[in-house]
């Protein structure tokens, strides 16, 4: 078996500018601008759509011989704090009373409890009794049989995402993280980290590459396992990784995918600056970041980033030193043509945020 590094080396991946990049940016990057978690939202969206479709099949089977039949889907947007779910809600032709039980009524505001329920089902973090109590408190009429089927479907899909063969070449891989606290049956709070890898292939198609659950926080060893998993399933070359500044990740990408570019989110950097700098220092840094996003090219971006580092150094020399060491990863987006950087002019890195 070849060394892991050899699997990711190859030659630098080339891609042509094409129309699909605009729709790619429109669909995915713009959701990241608000600090959402589009990778996890995309996963939940796919799972909910599948669960609702399965529920319609069960409903139609119960009315077999009565002339009832499927009648397509209608779109519904479900707004969660982790991002927007673009759902395809199944319909039947005659029964007006049919509505997927896991879908909140349109008039009901979706709150954090509903989001926590979805995360718990995803992470298998609740017992059967906890799930039933949560469903009852949310007034979701989900039967025990339907709950068992939904849990089995989720596990089946997650197993698929962990084992499916993958294409060799990818335009971009987004690594999305979501941290949750779930309460066990005994009342203990457990810290969970959920990671989703979403790939964009060379034709602009979006695909879930993998899903990982970790108790506690990530480490370099964890990222080695993640990338060895992706490479074992076929990933060979990636043009661009888009991530938050996860601990140990940059070193692993540089070793296993030395030709790939790695973009860190400027939005996350801006949040850190706001937390660490004085109001006047942050105001100046925010304006410099805005100008970096508007930079004509990488040369201008380099000059502006140097000014940003110098400004931060006066108040936070340690932070400035760390920023300087990650300069190229913060400015990777400036190596792409302007039309690729963002659907809205100069919104690229706000749109890159996966934190």
Task: Name the helix and strand elements from N-terminus to C-terminus, one letter apiece.
Answer: HHHEEHHHEEEHEHEHHHHHHH
**Widest β-sheet, arrangement of strands:** 5-4-3-6-7
How does the helix and strand content classify structurally? alpha/beta
Distance between the termini: 35 Å
The total count of strands amounts to 7
The radius of gyration is 22 Å
Give the overall form.
elongated
**How can the largest sheet be summarized?**
5 strands, mixed
Structure annotation, total helices:
15
The helicity comes to 40-55%
Count of individual domains: 2
**Mean pLDDT, nearest integer?**
78
State the low-pLDDT regions, or none: 1-26, 342-355
Sheet-strand content, in percent, reads: 15-25%
Could you characterize the architecture of this molecule?
There is one protein chain. Helix 9 runs antiparallel to helix 10 and helix 11 (298-313) packs antiparallel against helix 12. The protein is an alpha/beta fold. It contains 15 helices and seven strands. The protein has a five-stranded mixed β-sheet with strand order 5-4-3-6-7. A two-stranded antiparallel ribbon has the order 1-2. Strand 4 and strand 5 form a beta hairpin. The chain has two domains: 4-35 and 164-352, no CATH class; 42-161, no CATH class.
Helix and strand arrangement:
Elements: H1 4-8, H2 20-32, H3 38-62, E1 70-80, E2 83-92, H4 112-123, H5 128-137, H6 144-163, E3 169-183, E4 189-200, E5 206-215, H7 220-232, E6 237-243, H8 249-256, E7 261-264, H9 266-276, H10 279-293, H11 298-313, H12 317-325, H13 327-330, H14 338-341, H15 348-352
Parallel strand pairs: 3-6, 6-7
Antiparallel strand pairs: 1-2, 3-4, 4-5
